[in-house]
């Protein structure tokens, strides 16, 4: 079993920064990738960023030049540094993992952390 706990969300003005963190615990031996998704009110959950084995990163076009995903193996965390935040970044942010294969879907979601960007 695996558990993911997100933190670091909050209220920030447009142009500001936040750093989200996801702590992973439990059976982590079969994890092949980590991802951040977000869900705004009335919208579907959407991909934000991922980091796979070999530290291969991928970003949604909307965040590519502003967000950075990183992994701290010692702390078993995956962070999302968010800069130049915009009101449209407002959402609940979730982290998930790929298990067994880099081609597996993301799952084992945490409870999410709210990010609100005011204009």
What's this model, at a glance?
The chain is mainly beta.
The chain-level structural class is: mainly beta
Element pattern in H and E:
EEEEEEEEEE
Q: Quickly count the helices.
A: 0
What is the average per-residue confidence, as pLDDT, rounded to a whole number?
Answer: 96
Helix content: under 10%
Work out the number of β strands.
10
Main sheet strand line-up: 2-10-9-4-5-6
Low-confidence stretches: none
Topology of helices and strands:
Blueprint: E1 2-7, E2 10-13, E3 18-26, E4 31-39, E5 46-52, E6 56-59, E7 67-72, E8 77-82, E9 91-99, E10 113-118
Parallel strand pairs: 2-10
Antiparallel strand pairs: 1-3, 3-8, 4-5, 4-9, 5-6, 7-8, 9-10
Explain the overall architecture.
The protein is mainly beta. Helix content is about 0%, strand content about 55%. The protein contains no helices and 10 strands. It is globular, with a radius of gyration of 13 Å.
For this entry, give a set of tags:
single chain, 119 residues, mainly beta, six-stranded mixed sheet, four-stranded antiparallel sheet, 10 strands
């Amino acid at each position: 079993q695996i558990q993911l706990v997100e933190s670091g969300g909050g209220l920030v003005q447009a142009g500001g920064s936040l750093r989200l963190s996801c702590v992973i615990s439990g059976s982590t031996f079969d994890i092949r990738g980590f991802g951040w998704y977000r869900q705004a009110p009335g919208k579907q959950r959407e991909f934000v960023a991922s980091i796979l084995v070999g530290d291969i990163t991928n970003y949604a076009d909307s965040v590519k030049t502003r967000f950075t995903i990183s992994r701290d193996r010692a702390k078993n965390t995956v962070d999302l540094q968010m800069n130049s935040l915009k009101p449209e970044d407002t959402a609940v942010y979730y982290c998930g993992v790929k298990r067994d294969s880099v081609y597996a879907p993301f799952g084992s979601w945490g409870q999410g952390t709210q990010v609100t960007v005011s204009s």
